[in-house]
Amino acid sequence: MKMKKRVLCVYDGSRRLWKDDMMLDSEFEVRMRLGDGKSYVTDLDVETVKRADALHNATEEEKGPWIQGDVDIEELMS
Hints:
It is a single chain. This protein is α+β, with helices and mostly antiparallel strands and 78 residues long. Helix content is 29%, strand content 35%. It has 3 helices and 4 strands; from the N terminus they run E-E-E-E-H-H-H. The strands form 2 sheets. Strands 1-2 form a two-stranded antiparallel sheet. Strands 3-4 form a two-stranded antiparallel sheet. Strand 3 and strand 4 form a beta hairpin. The radius of gyration is 17 Å and the shape is elongated. The model has no long low-confidence stretch (mean pLDDT 82).
């Protein structure tokens, strides 16, 4: 089994909004040919771009608060 991995990191300036790892068995990938007939894009690539686009179009409220500097995990969890 051969897996393909995509790591998506979405930034708003220096603020990281999202980090996501996606994996797909290459046996099940769907390849779509591009206009030149030689290149292709996979369904995983398309979904990765859709996710990034959705995060960039999010409102400030949906993005959540921006916490700068070192973050105390205990403080966030309380």
